[in-house]
Amino acid sequence: MRVAMFEEPVIELSTRDVKTITPDTTIGKAIGIMEQNKFHNLIVVDSDSSESEIYMVNIQDLLLASNPDSPVDEFMFKPHCIQKDTPTMEALCELLDSGQRAAPIVDADGKLTGIVTEYDIMARGAHSHILRDTAVGDVMTSDVIYVDKAASIGKARSIMRKSNLGHLVIVDEHNKITGIITEGDILRRLYKPKQRMTSGEYKGEKIARMGQPVSLIMSSPVITTTMDANLADVAGLMCEHDIRAVPITRKDMRPRGIVTTHDIMRFLSEFRAKSEVNVEILGTVDEAYKELAMRIIDTELRKIVRLARRIHWIKIVIKKERDRGGVSYYKIGAHVKTPEKLYVGYGEPGGTKILMAAQGAGEIEKKADKRRWDFIATLKDALLSVRAQMEDDKIKKGSGRS
Question: Residue 48 carries which DSSP code?
Fold first, then answer.
């Protein structure tokens, strides 16, 4: 068994009405289309080719062009394409491996049927129980790199290149977040080709302004959130505001951390890898309980997987018994093997309590009556017991006691 998540075909969350251009489209026109539609990538279809070859261009490359009247063909590249029936989680991993922020979706014949982007994944993630159950603190980068708003644009870009960052947080004299810049901001505002790109709008010239303060080009106010947020909240903000990074702040707006689209996608990819464990169920599950039982197991195992660095196997043992009145009750054991430890949790009627009373040198055992717990409650108890043990171990490791 594998913990199911993001299993729908990727075409279901892709944009199917794809805006495309041809290789002879001018760079200026392509930039205009991208800015008007808030695109970061455009698909280029070579209709002159016998097989209608699919290419892509991204706005960062086009903004570096010196001549807006030249065609896009010198900047286009052959992208990794994803099959339309690929499960969304597999598509996410392919997108990560390709290093692309978007990918064309094709059918079995290689015909273009859609496009999927990071923001489509974030839109899906905003409704994900997995991300809803994950605090930003579990994923965010705590060591936030930032510069003062008076720092030069050149210094900011140098830091971004040296640290391989696509964004940089800007703070004021009190170290409070006041803005953010991206590589795209610098290219748009300093290196855009000299020409009118869209009707009624004149673009800036290629002027050396690297010595001017970064506050001139930063985006402000900044979309932020706090440590109380979960990853689904962050994914929703990214999708809503068309941003790739959300700073995590203290109440006074001082930086606490930052989460990027790449962080969330990498988390999902790693979560999927950890969740691919062998789950063995021993014993009989009544048909009436089966569907609900599998949903509970799936939900709880997601939480258990999040707590463990790795899980070797999981075994759930179900014993069905009857009391003297003929009513069924269950005893369930959940066994979870990690590289460090075997966790065992039990759920049972609880009334096989053993009361010990001292009588002289001997002892007398007295068994209490069995309480009738239904199957679902017993199953939950067994799984919750394992999770509680793992959470306790995590706290101990965090405090350095183990």
Answer: T
**Contact partners, residue 204, CB within 8 Å, separation at least 6:** 189, 190, 192
Number of domains in the chain: 3
- Asked if 40 and 101 touch (Cβ cutoff 8 Å), the reply is yes
Distance of CA 164 to the CA centre of its chain: 20
| Joined tokens for residue 357 | 């009373």
Q: Structural domain of residue 214, as residue ranges? A: 132-269
Using alpha carbons, select from 196, 162, 174 the residue that is nearest to residue 35: 196
Residue pair 263/140 in contact (Cβ under 8 Å)? The answer is: yes
- pLDDT, tens digit, for every residue of 183-208? 888 888 776 665 433 433 434 444 45
- Same domain for 349 and 303, yes or no, is yes
Q: What is the pTM of this model?
A: 0.69
Q: The CATH number of the domain where 94 resides is what?
A: 3.10.580.10
CA dist list (Å): 132 to 54, 302, 307: 36, 12, 15
Identify whether residues 94 and 143 lie together within a single domain: no
For residues 152 and 213, is the Cβ–Cβ distance under 8 A?
A: yes
Cis peptide before 255, with omega less than 30 degrees from 0?
Answer: no
| Burial class (CB within 10 angstroms; exposed 0-12, middle 13-18, buried 19+) of 68 | buried
Q: Quick check: 265 and 168 in contact, CB under 8 A?
A: no
Question: Is 185:243 a contact under the CB 8 Å cutoff?
Answer: no
